Amino acid sequence: MADIIPFKAVRPAADKVSLVTTRPYDDYSAAELASWLDFNPFSFLHIVNLAFINQEKIDPLRRYKMVATKYQDFKRDGILIKDENPAMYLYQIKSKKNNFVGILAGTSLKDYETNVIKKHENTLKYRVENLKDYFKETKFNTEPVLMMYPNCDELEQWIAKKMNQTPLYDFSTTNRERHVLWKIDSEEELNFIQKTFKEIPNLYIADGHHRSATSDLLLKENSKNASNNMNYFMSFLICEKLIQINEYNRLIHDLNGMETDEFLNILNEKFSVEKVHEYWKPTEKYTFGMYLEGSFYSLTLKNIPDKEQISDNLDAQILYDLILNPLLNIKDLRTDNRISYIPGNKNIMELVNKVDNGEFKIGFILYPSSVNEIKTLADNDLTMPPKSTYIEPKLRNGLIIYEF
Description:
404 residues; alpha+beta; UCP033563; Conserved hypothetical protein from pyrococcus furiosus pfu- 392566-001, domain 2; DUF1015 domain-containing protein; 2 domains
């Protein structure tokens, strides 16, 4: 039984919504960031950028207070407005390749703690602590946790009907996405959605494990003075069949002292290694692409692991257990500076160019995980290796803001 609530959102004034909203902060290059800050005074980047500039010179808490002040400036100037009544929102993100539709609502931290909301990633304590301090000072969050729910025909029919109504926002962005937002605030609609989700036994976090863990920690530290909103956290609830799961491909700086022929010979012990004369990506589990010294190779695992060993069955884990750790001496996938990652939604030429220009020695291309793999891991209280999945959609910052 999933408990979700409407909330009083803060959102851009209708005439400025396309100017205010941004991609996630870390999606911008330094040049892009500078350009947006120079030429767009309404960009939400003017708020969040204060949390990152001059990090070595300004105390973190002081930066967070600056973010809170700038945020209040945007509200005072009417760039951001707060809804008078609680609502949920139906949100569509449409591009040439994808069409994502889901519901923005508050999800319950009680559900998070009792495992009604299930997780498949471990979190880093220092990241949760830092984000908690940020939330505590700013008292808002604009990045919803991406949450999956199982197929529900009744809800799907309601969504299709709702999308025929006049939206609150309908705008396009420079990365050629169309964003459409409908407000859900009638008692009948809200009751229907809440009743529907109460009949859903579990929700699954697809992306946003640190944000949800941070909200949980913030509540525990402020349980005596917690507002109702603090008992919930903002999520984007989307049907699991609409989720787009991409792999994270790996780049390694060197072969750990081995010559290329030696490395290929060792790989032959565990994999069928075939040199291919084209850009090659795996099309099924237990196969891997490899780019080394200007050539692509296909690697096919010789011995398929026992299917009952769920975590050992993941391609990302197999790559780590058989190549990255024992052969290339990559121990910690989060902190080792010899490894880097490229999400699978990027063109494979980005990986090729980084190897060809000498920045890296070798690249590995993985087959993406499935929704069922994520759910099976979560159901068994297991976790994926770091950087196993790059999951879409990625939502706009500054579109809907959750205050607590």
